[in-house]
Batch of 3 targets.
Target 1
Amino acid sequence: MKRAWTILVFALLLGFVFAACAAPAAPSAPGEAAPAAQVRDFITWYQYDEKNEDPASDERVGNQYLRDTIPQFNEAFAGKWRWVNQPKAWDRMTAELVAAVQAGGDVPDLFEMGSSGLTELYKNGALQDLREWASAQSWYADMDPNALQACTGPDGGLYCIPIAERPHLVYVWKDRFPEGFPTRPEGYLAAGERLKAEGLYAMTFFGSTDFNGNGATRAVFMAFASFGGGYDDGQGNMLLNRPENVAAVEFLRTMVQSGYVPEIAFAGGFQEEEAFKDASAGSFPTGLFGYRYVNPLTAPNGTKYSKGNEEDMLDAIAAGDVILRPFPAPEGKTPGCNNEVTGFGIPVGAKNPEAAHDYINWIMSPEQNADWVLRPGAGFPALLTTRASEQFQTPFYRQAGEVVAASACRPWHGSLERRPEALRLIMGAVYRLIKEDPSLDIATELQRAQDEYNAGG
Amino acid sequence: MQRTEIRRKPRNRFRNLLPFWLILPTVVVILAIQVYPAFYTVWLSLHQRQPRGWDYVGVDNFQRLFRMGVFGESVGHTIVFLIGYTTLTLVLGFIIALLLNRKLKLSGLYITVLFVPWIIADIIVGIVFRLLVVPDYGLLSGILQNPAIFPPNGISVLTASRPPSWFGGFPFPPAPAMIYLIMASAWRALPFITLLLLAAMQTVSNEIIESSRMDGANGWQVVRHILIPLMLPTLVVALFSLTLGGMNGVGMVFSLTGGGPGTSTEVLSYLLYVLGWSQLEFGRAAALALLIAVVNWALILATLRITRVEERSH
């Protein structure tokens, strides 16, 4: 009898364990008909969340875009695909995908990505080469070759499909520079001195080492490139210690040490934006997409742009309070800027790559392409015919187009493959030189960062 | 007789094996979530990822780790953080426990209020503490950055450079951000440590304390010669908990300082996070994780050893 009880208890325990471990049944909404057997889920990872309806969310534009287009896609592919989006944090998506691929876990059919993260995904074997498929599509010939190049891996494979290009430029409060935004670094310094006397700042920028040195993709690269420098030698090696870069660091150091940049520029967490929002800083070099996050705004003349969304910056530009300009460059040099590509990758192990193909072709259609570029893309279209469309003739896009035409924009990483490591080393060195210890020798510090990267291969 | 023995044998075997079957699920879980990841970490630390798969690289990941300029700095920051964090938390926890042990009016309310920081996630504590001191815009920045209050230029906690080091490359005195990080971490850990010490304090017999007072012992002597020795096992547990939590915790650093300004609050656990999740260098991250595990073990063994010596001497 005792034995029977023991066996019974043991069996019950096992039952509980198995019940707890068993996969839960998929919940179905009451009254919802079971989907047809042939309809398969098309899983995407976006940094946006269609279920987040918070109007104050930083990602409201992308969230709304998904809310609008998921039903459209499902209608266009009724009976074939059902789009299921799984939102991911923008600065964790790459790591999560790599972990999922390497662990053999569930991966999405389509992954929203930027060209900056391409080499890490490539090195970790997380993305499929799409060259063969893409080159057979009708839109391929219409692609900006630079955008395709940004999606090309070290082995020549095409690891992402570019949809939008995001150049960097300078947002400027026009009234803070009554004689026009300077085109030369000396003019920028002179404006800094004048503004300082008024208790204001010439520039705010991402000056901290936060987000793994992401600041090195923004104003710091604009300064380096505008002085004729850059981060690599074109052969995969870091090349920091060169006269152009030293001059760029000297310029940034003077801006910071002279008090032309607010302290909040170094606080991290994108808090440098605050100084532009209240116009205490006259200019803000950052990505074109920055307009979406920098709001509400108060112009130097007191005008408030306070919808609290991306329209504030667009309104300020339309009203002429904010203008877009290239980064100042020394005599004989062309303003430089970073240009990254955003688009889609298809992970290794995706269950429905055909769904991703259908989706990409759908996004490339004239009805969808401009919408994607304008909303989640926040850049210029990689498809050349879309660039000519009416949506890209607004004051914002016209000015941005002029800035890009006057600049030499290129991906910050050049031929560098270990991009996160490079970012961290570069931004660490620049931060030490311009903020932490301005007495350090610039060439020596740049050489040190360069040597550490090049020794790491 | 023989038939009875034969019948008993399976029953005995079942009884003998029953403990094994009962602990089997636990063993399986421990193997799956602790032993396997530990071995996998060792394997990872000896490999490097390439597009075609994993390459065996021997100790290259360790060598690259030691070549990183920030590695040595992180070791220094970790030491400074751990000493500051454990000392501040234990001292404050002990003082608050002493006060609460006096059977004050509303002491239940004080304990409840005191417990609030413990129930807030460290990442939230970091964000709140950060918002207080954001340069120019933070709630306290008007006070902190006021040169009249903090001459000559005021203090910008999140962006102030570290002062010149007193000991070569060792990061002491720490940057204001490191001091603030220690304060925020201590604030969060304080309730648990206080309650732990209060519970231990309440087990010390009042008779011993009263008789020592009758013998002329002052307050400090009671603490030094009675309370601390009698509470030593609890103090060691508190020290363990704080040291291991401080060594491995990353949430507060992540949300409060992001390792900055520059690298001045970059501790080893944060470097591990950066290597693994920002740089996707799983091999090097695994190498660092192993080093941290070894240090953890060394700390535990050293503390146990010290405690045993102390206990014997008392």
Target 2
Amino acid sequence: MKYMLLIYGAENSWTEDERKACMIESMGICDELEKQGKWIASSPLYSVTTATSVRVRDGMKQITDGPFAETVEQLGGYYIIDVDNLDEAIAIAARLPPAKKGTVEIRPLFPLP
Amino acid sequence: MGSADLESLYRNESRKVFATLVRLLGDFDLAEEATHEAFASAMQQWPEQGVPANPISWLISAGRFKAIDTMRRRARFKVLEPELTRRFAEIESTNQAVSEHEIEDDRLRLIFTCCHPAIDPKVQVPLTLREVCGLTTEEIASAFLMSPATMAQRIVRGKAKIRDARIPYAIPSLSDLPTRLDPVLSVIYLVFNEGYSASSGDSLTRVDLSDEAIRLARLLVELLPDPEAMGLLALMLLHESRRVARSSDVGDIVLLEEQDRSLWNKDFITEGRRLVEHSLRSRRFGFYTIQAAISAVHAEAKLASETDWTQIVALYDVLLRADSSPIVELNRAVAIAMRDDIASGLEIIDTILSRGDLQEYYLAHSARGEFLRRLGRRDQARLAFERAMSLAKQEPEKRFLRRRLSELDG
């Protein structure tokens, strides 16, 4: 079963040192998952200030600056993992450093036929 | 075995059959259908061929084959995929006879799955009552005074979440148990409270839900003797022991201190006290056990005037450390009033209310009114009871407050 882990958090809640430590720890977890055949993809994202939203309405392309929703916690990264069940996904999500400051949302991937 | 015996077997054991079939089939709806078909087969075959040595095993096995039939029938028009063929073989080969121990584990798996924290608490309650207790959607809806459509929708939502997010059908690991047991206990307590003091409507108690909650807690304690599970069962038994005494023949509220204590159910009290003592000895007790201990102190007093208020205040102090909520503070204030004097209790309630807590809680204003009345401050008492009156939802509560108000006028 594939799950996407969406990392949400307030962007200003990390100091530069914390951010570096978080990267190193996260990459360690990715290596471990990859060895177990559970890692598919993951990446941090640039700040939400770089976000661009696109909508097509009545055939017209609308391009705006910023994310889809203005919230306190922004999407800051993602993981795609392949594990047996939700409990295993929860256990991995709980180990990710951003879970301590923000929120990790777990979404099962809808399998295409 | 007559049809009455089979009916009682269905009532008592069908959820065991269902719980094991969910594990074997990996699908709630398929397992539900298979359970019904297995009992239908039993109704046909047992009167002629006699009751099998192990009826539960027989039913599980029959259900399993019925499910394979159903799956084959559904697949007939599709190309039989290798995945499906493998699944049939797997179901057929597993468990020739399911052990008693496995059946118990399956019931526990079912409880933990329905109360998984990834499921909305509003959904956990009806889902547990439906799947674990086997109540019908209509029964659950009428117990919670909601429309069957809403309840059905919640149950469907819960089953879809289990299936799509792949919530495992498993007993949590020991390290996860504390976080996983909490929602199970709160579902049970919620069901009990809904039955014990209905959230609205004109009947003070709804017996069925409280019975279901006690039955669920007994099952949990039997399968997983955790101190807090015992504490919760004890708490519910001790409350339940006063059911007859807590309302009059015409359905009016009778306060604890005015209850006829000879009406209290002594078996429930004995069992509740035994469980509290057991849980306290474990030293891993919490919120439910401490509340049960308080209830047990009340149960020990033959007369209201013999209540050991010193011990009750001490227990509330422990409870406040475990769970500092304004409602616990309010209850402690009442205990202080009884141990020391009314004015001290009133002072604590005024502090809670002036902080902005419990403003909308009718019992806070009702208790305040009672203290003011006993202190002879009639005008203030009337205002407090009137405020309580505007917040009370149930008829018996309103009648109680009306009575107090008319006594003030008299």
Target 3
Amino acid sequence: MFAEYIKSALASIRNNKGRSFLTMLGIIIGISAVLTVLIIGDGMKARVNSEFDTIGATTISVSLDVTKTDKFFEKEDFLKIEEVMDNIYGISPSLDAFGTAATGRDVFDMVMNGGSEAAENAAGVTMVSGRFYNKSDVEGSNKVIVISQIGAQKLFGYEDVVGKTIELTNDNMSCEFTVIGVKKNSNQDTAYASFGEDAMLIGLMPYTSMADAFNLDINNFFTGFTIYLESEKKDAVLKSARSVVENVMGLRGENAVKLSSGLGFDQTTDSILNIITSVVAIIAAISLLVGGIGVMNIMTVSVTERTREIGIRKSLGARTSSILTQFLAEAAILTFTGGIIGIILGLTISFIICRIVDFVFVVNPLLVLGVVGISTAIGLFFGIYPAKRAAALDPIDALRTE
Amino acid sequence: MKLVEIRDVSKIYNPGENEVKALNHVSISIGKGEFVAIIGQSGSGKSTLMNMLGCLDTPTSGKYFLHGQDVSHMTDDEQSDVRNREIGFIFQGFNLIPSLTALENVELPLIYRGVGKKERERLANAALNSVGLEKRKTHRPNEMSGGQQQRVAIARAIAQAPPILLADEPTGNLDTASTKEIIRIIKRLYYEGRTVIIITHDPGIAQQAKRIITISDGMIKSDIINPDYRDEI
């Protein structure tokens, strides 16, 4: 029986081809607009995320106010703070030095950055081979270094350099470091390495090793460090960090500890992009709403025009539900077909746009299914009012209509 | 009990000060296989009576038993089912659905009855053949003459073999030749054993029936066996 309603709905759509198409056009435009916006939004996110090739963890910077205290963080302080603090990946000081890196092949300037093993959570660290330095490297002041792909290329001419050695020189002191890992290029790596003759490489190593190799005094040096943590834990950590540091450093009540937090790149950019995408999608969805109202409008006209037909059907034994189903099926078919065409159009448009602006064209099948569902739901929602009106017609009145 | 039993039925529109008594304590019974004409001027209440007989309307007071079942107080859907099962309508304006072919129009009551596709087509084809329209099955109403359209309507009315054929001014929109043809078909259906009720204002049409009921001002004025009835096609 249901097949008959579908057939009869299709026949009625066929009989009003032009009008049905115009009605569908509203849905087509709405659906394709929403789909295009969402797909391009996804592409934009993927593109932005690939620009920042590695996304760091959320960080909190802790520093001592040098006008209020003359204390410094020492190695034991870092270990103690890390041990006491909950909900964090780890903490790392930052020791920077400038020098040169030499291999048998070439010599380059190098920015040396020393940290603890927690620095693996920093932005721009994604290993491609080998590993990042670990806790025992830091404890043992092991002379190990992590360089980027581009650094490996410059120094050795190829990327597979785990196990090779580099001679680092700082302030006339030299020391051999073993490459234990190669990481993906961060934007900084690429930028520094692009200065031609003056190209600089970046090397990451345990701060203890760096101090040891170049005879740097790290006992009266550090006035700050970075906490790496999961973004959800930020509030909790912000609350406890100050008192932990004050306790460990014996600075209670001196108001000498400063905290500042930064979101990881991921949350900031993702949330901005999500906001942009949703705002545009909402605007696009308004056109869908307008399309739905178009369906309701045309169905209402259709019911009025076919009042007599409804009367005839009722006199022949059509129940209220039969009439309701017939008109609902008609509205649903209109919007479903419009939805399918809209999806094809939306995919085409977004594919072309993604090609032009060089975004990745990713289609989430769930999104497409969702859009089909939404378009049919619109048909049913906006079809209910006219269909109910049709079904409720009194057969005598309906038959009397010319 | 007779096939149609209307007992003391009244239908009042606009109850209150301006009330109109369209039917005023009407009682009629019609047996199986009868051929009845109900004649009356416009405003006599014959349309209301026809709606009542056709289960399109319910009485304000009184009882209507159709095929032994009390149909005086039914929900819309129950009425729809009774109409589908018991009554074949033939209207003055044919009332075919313009977007459907002759065959599809005839299939409609069978669809609402839930008859399967194959059986439905068989019954609809048989009905169209019996009114001599085997060559017009795929035509739409606007491609046929008035007489042909009315024959499609008759085929639709008899397709699922209801006990009663209810014809409301069946020849009102037709020329003389088509009128003759339609009357001939209706008479033949009567001879085949169907109960036929014709509602008309035209004495010439009423004369064709075996029993003539005259209605005026919502009341039955006369109910006679037609002395001039001729048993011929």
